Amino acid sequence: MPINSFDTYPMSWKPNKKDLKRPFFLSIASLLEQDITNGFLAPGAKLPPQRELADFLDINFTTITRAYKICESKGLIYGVTGSGTFVAPNAARSIIISAEKISQNGIDLAFVASFEQSNHIVAEIIPKVVNKSYLEKLLNYSDPTGIPHQKRAGLNWMEPFGICSDPEHVAIVSGSQNALAIAVTALFKSGNRIVTDLYTYSNFIVLAKMFNIHLVPIAGDQDGMLPDELERQCRQTNIHGIFLMPSCCNPTTIMISDDRKRELTSVIRKYNLILLEDDTHVFLTAGIIPDYQQPMFNLLPEQTVYICGTAKSICSGLRIAYMVFGDAFRAKIFKAIFSINVKTSSLDAEIITELILSGKAAEIASRKKQWAQASNAIYKEYFLEHELTGHPLSFYRWLPLKRQYDATQMESDLERIGISVFHSNRFLSGKASSNQYLRIALSSTNTLDELRLGLEALKQYIIRHDME
Amino acid sequence: MPINSFDTYPMSWKPNKKDLKRPFFLSIASLLEQDITNGFLAPGAKLPPQRELADFLDINFTTITRAYKICESKGLIYGVTGSGTFVAPNAARSIIISAEKISQNGIDLAFVASFEQSNHIVAEIIPKVVNKSYLEKLLNYSDPTGIPHQKRAGLNWMEPFGICSDPEHVAIVSGSQNALAIAVTALFKSGNRIVTDLYTYSNFIVLAKMFNIHLVPIAGDQDGMLPDELERQCRQTNIHGIFLMPSCCNPTTIMISDDRKRELTSVIRKYNLILLEDDTHVFLTAGIIPDYQQPMFNLLPEQTVYICGTAKSICSGLRIAYMVFGDAFRAKIFKAIFSINVKTSSLDAEIITELILSGKAAEIASRKKQWAQASNAIYKEYFLEHELTGHPLSFYRWLPLKRQYDATQMESDLERIGISVFHSNRFLSGKASSNQYLRIALSSTNTLDELRLGLEALKQYIIRHDME
DNA sequence: CGATTTGTGTGTATACATTTG
DNA sequence: TCAAATGTATACACACAAATC
């Protein structure tokens, strides 16, 4: 029996001792999970320290460690040595982002589409592909990672971005997200740790959670992740990989400067991390942003998986992304492709190939850049007071909020007045943060007028609520 | 110090005590991994019992448990309570099967293609799809799990097989393998156990290994898995799921009889297992094999994920499979789809849809069945002495070998004389077996004459070696 | 058929590292 | 700057279950 009675001490979570069944650690974990999903324990709430709860339940404290660990691996809670254990910001809801839930009536500023108005150009070129003499050859099991001429076209496309490789080290897969799933399954094991920006691509967060990869958030500034913070984390924990979106981080729109790329690369080399470089937005950066020199892949080809999706730059529906990698990763990546996809449609890859080789892809990308520019100009009209930091052509903006909102509440409030938008909590890779933002997609409305309507309504909402 | 000197006792594996660094369990695991991948420890070799090795190294035996566990989760070894720990049959090599490695010159009886000679019919219909007024609508992010009319076409296709559902409970994904990857990530957690036939689809074995799912092999007879054995295993271990290919098991060609389906279903219901029903070969069975009544999905829709790929029946290159599931799994499966694929190409799905609705898909399937019949007849000419058991129209055959071969050796011997074929060890889900087989693909040669040549050469090889 | 062998599951003890004040 | 609070990592003890002989 515990020596002290804890009835008088306040403890944020007190499981009923009588509900405990053996095995204790499983029992405690499921009680905790219930109370979090019930909403009894709110996001950010502090749990009792392991030793205190153990004393209360009269068991060894490492049994609590194990129970907490189960919930942590499910993404329900996170522990910070020295401070305590807390309920994760997105414990009780799914933050996966897809086109499935787009409301039919409202204005969508949540899901980031890709200015789909250029798809008629894609539609126009398809008959040309279909008339090729070798169409039948595109319909069988051959060349599961891409036909060599398709890979060469991909290299061709990526050449202006600074990528220099060969078809042997390229794979064509079914989009950037698919590439990430492949890279994670190929190169990481359950329990591995990957560092990310504090705010990062929420579907990567979900992916990592699914594969039981722990994300470790690292602080950054306007030039990207801080190398010293990265190094500090590498020294203190066993880190296996790093996920970055150097050309335009989703959601923060931050671009990693060339100097920063070099500094980060040297830490990555030193600690032998695997770099997942998602460079989907490079077409908005290379040749446009003066500081852009090259992808990080160039600086460290043997430790990097470079991912260049065509959904944002060329066509979102054809699901084609290029993966570029060094010799060391090749066999593992191929194996993961065969396990997850078997192959990616050669027909779809051929259409993208034709768009690239005919110059139409460049034309499409250029139109999308123009729309991005126009949309960003409109955004500035409404949110002038916030100096525009980050990428000037981003398909989305990152709006700082002046006060604390309840993230779920805010999203559903806005949904009710016909605006979908995502609160920054969805993009939190680990612990809660006191700063709040909204990610506002500029590329998903049917017209610029619709975008104006949405931004106007959003602005009114924020003005009204910032004063409360 | 250990009391006895073990120098005189034989122990199958003796790591050098001086090589051990702290932490011990990691150190031991990596030494063991090295000796297995080196080939120093051959597949099937028995490792020292945990307690014995612990005594030898003068540490606690549960530390050995942890070291062994790491290697087991990598698929290098497996433990059998009461008997010991053994090196896994496929520890040192990858058994993933893909079209990538097909030798250009030899005759391919290894990879199972799908009589690609019918692809011209697919090619002929593509222009019709491309001329549709709504082509542009197929090129964006919408309807990530399939457009409703495409899902209805899929249900249409599966109706003769006995599937009865609605578009809300169907998802279109990128092939059967992709469906399996989605189902496994959606519904299972790291460390979960799934039972399979003793010999099962090798890419599922690899997939399971990647996601750290333990496969538990269950014995079967000519009608499929034995319900009593399944029940016994469920009683004794915590089993989470079951993977079956009822219409034609790959590689054994066994069909699960209707009675057996019912018996197995009642065990699956009783222990609340999740059934992954890969019914890719149903088009060879429904309406052809008199015993065929219905898929297991019908008997247990809320616990089943039904997977019906079109690669074998319609077109292998378009990468379209249908997943059908109950309400309970819907949200989880959608989430996994968004994490792994985002979406599957609507263009590819539309081509399959058009083939189904125009009746061309049925025509293609019918041709493939004719080729399968012809190929099986040829097979019988060469391997007459083996009474043909299993599916009569299977795209591959399962040839029992009369003596023990070295699996890797045999495959590479045959490769040298221009024949690719797979030894049964590739398909072993768990422990080694004393019976040996070859899986012989009948659907991958360009012509039936080429098939004859391959089977003749194979027969000569076997006759020559069976006498040794 | 029961004792023995052997792997598995669960709770515990201890050393350690980081954060906080 | 250091001690206290707190989470993490590793090794161990013990009860149990299945297979073997």
What is the beta-strand fraction of chain A? 5-15%
Cross-sheet strand order for the largest sheet of chain A: 5-13-12-11-10-6-7
Low-confidence stretches of chain A: 1-9
CATH homologous group name of the largest domain in chain A: Type I PLP-dependent aspartate aminotransferase-like (Major domain)
Main β-sheet of chain A, in a few words? 7 strands, mixed
Number of domains of chain A: 3
**DSSP helix fraction of chain A:** 25-40%
Structure, explained:
The structure is a homodimer of 468-residue chains. Chain A is of the alpha/beta class and 468 residues long. The first copy, chain A, is built from 15 helices and 17 strands. Chain A is globular. Residues 1-9 of chain A have low confidence and may be disordered. Chains A and B meet through helix 4, helix 6, helix 7, helix 11 and helix 12 of A and helix 4, helix 6, helix 7, helix 11 and helix 12 of B. The structure holds a DNA duplex (21 and 21 nucleotides).
Key descriptive features of the protein:
homodimer; alpha/beta; Aspartate Aminotransferase, domain 1; Aspartate Aminotransferase, domain 2; 7-stranded mixed β-sheet; 3-stranded antiparallel β-sheet; 14% strand; globular; disordered N terminus; DNA-binding
